[in-house]
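Collaborator request log, item 7. Partner lab (contact: R.S.) asked for a structural prediction of Fructose-1,6-bisphosphatase/inositol monophosphatase family enzyme to inform their binding assays.
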Amino acid sequence: MFDVDAVTAILHEAVEEVILPRFRALAEGQVMEKSPGEIVTVADREAEELISGRLRAVVDAPVVGEEATSDDPSLPRALNEEPVAWLVDPLDGTRNFVNGRPEYAVMAALVRGGETVAAWIVQPCARRVYVAERGSGTWRDGVRVRRSPAPASPADMRGAVLTRFFGPDARRRMEEEAPRFASVGPGAYCAGVDYPRLVEGELDFVLFHRTLPWDHAPGSLMLAEAGGVSLRPDGSAYRPGDGAVGLLNAADEACWKTVRSLLVG
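Returned to partner:
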């Protein structure tokens, strides 16, 4: 057992002490490129350090953080090799944050036996907190959230597809088939925003190619616990440490099958 509320408090602490004071107030030199096309800020690093240290006091387990992994790529092995591990994304949607946009989030998940068993998403600007535990549902600010079924026709379905990491054939297929849906956009460029939008009914499906564990473990559990479907395109279960690519998230099984047949093949 562990204290779910204690983790929520830790994420709030990072938000109040590190992240919000830097929002729209980053100084020169506080935004760096950690790899081609990938940026990091002092807020990412300081928030991860704060969160990681506090989480170990809740459950003494390795912490697989996004920024720590950029320095030590072997860290994600803990998701498969250790009985319990934490995942931390201290600032999901960093580019939005740097550009002064409110679509960013702070996320954490607890992985036990290779499966996500608890998840947290805090959206600082929206002042929303999402929490999920396996078998206990998904909750927004203390109110249980249940995903309603998607419309039956693709013409009424709204989705998001981040094509940045798609190959040419997959991108071409998406472009050809997207007009069959009510709308298909790129999403918020923040998993910590797109998953809650799917859970809440603003979107009916979200398709990703790259599935880094700290980005997708929290939201995929929340969607499943709210009644939605989060599976690999081949229909296999998502496990944060499996190293596979592609993740199709949908409001229900029928929607998942429809989107897969049209956008994935």
